[in-house]
Amino acid sequence: MPQIPQTLNELSVGQLSARSGAAVSALHFYETKGLISSRRTSGNQRRYTRDALRRVAFVRAAQRVGIPLATIREALAELPEERTPNRDDWARLSQAWRSELDERIRQLGRLRDHLTDCIGCGCLSLETCVLSNPDDVSGETMAGSRLMPERRPKGHR
C-alpha cells in the first residue's frame, strides 16, 4: 500500500483509492452523493483532504451493514467540515441506526423461517404469503397486487 507522507495534506483520487480500497469510480460516486468532497487544481484534478480517508472508511462500514447512502450522508452532514468521524461519532450514529437494523434482522428472520414453506408451496400469494405480503401490509394501504401496475378499464383515462 502506498505511503502518504505526513506533510502531504491533500490526496489525489488515485492515492485516496489506493489507501481506502474504494474504486476511483466509487469515490466519484460518493462525491456526487455529497459523502466526500474535493477541490479542483488548476489542471482540473481532484484533491481530497486527509479526512476523506476516514469518511470513506465510515461510508463503507455503514454500507456493509445496510445503511442507505442518504442516511449516511445525513449522518456525515452533522459533523464539522474537514473533521474525521471518530469512535464517539460512530458510536452515536450507529446507536441511532440500531432500530432500523433490528427491523431488518426481524424481517430476515421471518424470511429464513418461512423460505422452506414457500419453496414447498410455491404460491407466493399476494393475499396470504408471509414473504410477499408480511402482516398483510399491502392490504392496509391498497387493493390488488403491489407488483402489477394498476390497470384501468378500457375507455377510462
Distance between the termini: 62 Å
How would you sum up the major sheet? 3 strands, antiparallel
| Percentage of residues in helical conformation | 40-55%
Strand order of the largest sheet: 1-3-2
Strand content: 5-15%
> Structural class, please?
mainly alpha
Number of helices: 6
DSSP summary, beta strand count:
3
Order of helices and strands: EHHEEHHHH
Overall geometry: elongated
Question: What is Rg?
Answer: 23 Å
Would you tell me the overall average pLDDT?
Answer: 77
Low-confidence sequence ranges: 146-152
Question: How is this structure best described in words?
Answer:
The structure is a single chain. The chain has 6 helices and 3 strands; from the N terminus they run βααββαααα. It has a 3-stranded antiparallel beta sheet with strand order 1-3-2. About 4% of the residues have low confidence.
